[in-house]
Design a protein that fits this description.
By secondary structure, the protein is α+β, with helices and mostly antiparallel strands. The chain has one domain: Mitochondrial biogenesis AIM24 (Double-stranded beta-helix), CATH 3.60.160.10. It is about 15% helix and about 40% strand. It contains five helices and 19 strands. The strands form four sheets. Strands 5-6-3-10-13-8 form a six-stranded antiparallel beta sheet. It has a six-stranded antiparallel beta sheet with strand order 11-12-9-16-19-14. A four-stranded antiparallel beta sheet has the order 1-2-7-4, with no helix packed on it. The chain is globular.
């Protein structure tokens, strides 16, 4: 028996995905502002403070719950979509950039997922979206996501989005995985998150892979992305600025000349 609303869903697309959620009468799904794509007649939309998981409490309690979301890069407000008529109705939400939508059944995942900032897309009503503080000073300072990550709690369905292709790994007790800090999307609450110095002067100065690895240790599940949005944005700025980095300076200059960018 779930405490959160129970919803059915379908994911469409390959590189630019959307998730279509089917609602029974009086069922509600909450989503980040700007994620909405389309909805059937009979669904009403309402802007709410926070995620709507707190039914009681005063205005200040709700404001505090919503304000914590600002620390993870999210808006104070979310949008609730409720099916108010008979039968079934559908509402859909689209991913903000090329990548994959990850369905997370929190009931099957221990009731809690920790994920990167800005990755949350939508969830069944009752799922709580908050902040997760990094307990270790080194992890907070050098872990790529800072001291604060996002946590999603409850027993309903939640949907996160990440860039490129998604790799899911199951880590056994004592098993660990070293990862580029930007490639972490989410992990279950049993995973231990730490950082490790890459080591070696040449690796540090010339490796181009950063100074630290993220180290995730089991037991639990880990979701990784092949294209962090920060990496994509960096490449776009690099080429948009007109400074192209090629395999060799002579070939690079010739290429720039041939494509009209020789200055």
């Amino acid at each position: 028996m779930r405490n959160n609303h129970e919803i059915d869903y379908r994911i469409f697309g390959e590189e630019m995905q959307c998730v279509e959620i089917e609602l029974d009468p009086q069922e509600t799904v909450v989503a980040e502002s700007g994620a909405f794509m389309y909805m059937d007649n009979g669904i009403e939309m309402q802007t709410i403070f926070g995620d709507g998981s707190k039914q009681g409490g005063g205005f200040l309690d709700k404001l505090w719950g919503a304000g914590k979301r600002l620390l993870t890069g999210e808006s104070l407000f979310m949008t609730a979509f409720t099916h108010t008529t008979q039968g079934k109705a559908k509402v859909a939400f689209a991913s903000p950039y090329p990548g994959k939508i990850i369905p997370l059944d929190l009931q099957q995942l221990g009731g809690k997922i920790i994920c990167q900032k800005d990755s949350f897309l939508c969830a069944a009503k009752g799922v709580a979206i908050g902040i997760e503080w990094q307990r270790k000073l080194g992890t907070g300072l050098f872990g790529g996501e800072g001291f604060i990550m996002q946590k999603v709690e409850g027993d309903g369905m939640a949907f996160c989005h990440a860039g490129g292709h998604i790799i899911e790994r199951e880590l056994k007790p004592g098993e660990s995985l070293r990862i580029d800090t930007g490639c972490i999307v989410a992990y279950t609450s049993g995973i231990d998150f730490d950082i490790k110095f890459v080591g070696g002067i040449k690796n540090t100065l010339f490796g181009g892979e950063g100074v630290f690895f993220a180290v995730l240790s089991g037991p639990g599940k880990v979701w990784l992305q092949t294209l962090p949005i920060s990496r994509l944005a960096s490449r776009m700025m690099q080429y948009g600025g007109g400074n192209r980095r090629e395999e060799g300076s002579i070939l690079g200059g010739l290429g720039n000349l041939l494509d009209g960018d020789g200055r």
